[in-house]
Amino acid sequence: MNAEAFNSPLFVKRATHIVQEIASLADAVDFLNEWPEDRRDLIHEAALRTCYDAYDGRKPVSAARNAFFGFAKRAVDGG
């Protein structure tokens, strides 16, 4: 397993019948960068910043996974 891989993947509903696996920092950053600009908020910004900080070694990958999970739970799942 590479250093940027999550310890366990997250599965995020991308559309009604499409679920995307997020298994690494690269997956999370791609998902966040593709998120519609008009739906971005402070939680999105914080998750993206945490992912970049993990890439740069300033934060652990687990922090980025947790930040992405928090974003996805609220923004994607609506809860």
Give the spatial strand order of the biggest sheet. 1-2
Mean pLDDT: 91
Order of helices and strands: EEHHH
How many structural domains are formed by the residues? Answer: 1
Number of strands: 2
Structural class: alpha+beta
Number of continuous helical runs: 3
What separation lies between the terminal Cα atoms? 31 Å
What is the helical fraction, as a range of percent?
A: 40-55%
Strand content: 15-25%
**What are the segments in which pLDDT stays under 50 over at least 5 consecutive residues?**
none
Protein name: DUF982 domain-containing protein
Pfam family, one: DUF982
Strands, helices and their partners?
Layout: E1 5-15, E2 18-24, H1 25-34, H2 42-55, H3 61-76
Antiparallel strand pairs: 1-2
Helix pairs in contact: 1-2, 2-3
Overview in brief:
This protein is 51% helix and 23% strand. With 79 residues, the protein is of the alpha+beta class. It has one domain (5-76).
